[in-house]
Write a structure and sequence with these properties.
mainly beta; seven-stranded mixed beta sheet; 11 strands
């Protein structure tokens, strides 16, 4: 079992920055992928970015060049640096941990981009 706890959400102005963190605990092992998804009101959950245990990254087109995903050496934390935020980035952001075909989700952290 894997537990994920997100932090760092909040209110930002358009053009501003926020950094999300996700702490993983439990059965952390082997080849895995961590990432961030988001869900805006009335919309489906969508991919934001993922990073493998080999540090290979993948980004949604809508965030390329603005968001950066990273992991720490011990592979128990994943971060999402969000720059040049736009109102359309407003959503609940969820941390994901995938291993051996199993997906584990955090409870989410709200990001609101508004002036």
């Amino acid at each position: 079992q894997v537990q994920l706890v997100e932090s760092g959400g909040g209110l930002a102005q358009p053009g501003g920055s926020l950094k999300l963190s996700c702490a993983a605990s439990g059965s952390i092992f082997g080849i895995n992928t961590m990432g961030w998804y988001r869900q805006a009101p009335g919309k489906q959950r969508e991919l934001v970015a993922t990073i493998t245990s080999g540090h290979n990254t993948n980004y949604a087109d809508s965030v390329k060049g603005r968001f950066t995903i990273s992991r720490d050496f011990a592979r128990t934390m994943v971060y999402l640096q969000m720059n040049s935020l736009k109102p359309e980035d407003t959503a609940v952001y969820y941390c994901l941990y995938t291993v051996a075909g199993m997906d584990y989700w955090g409870k989410g952290t709200l990001v609101t981009v508004s002036s």
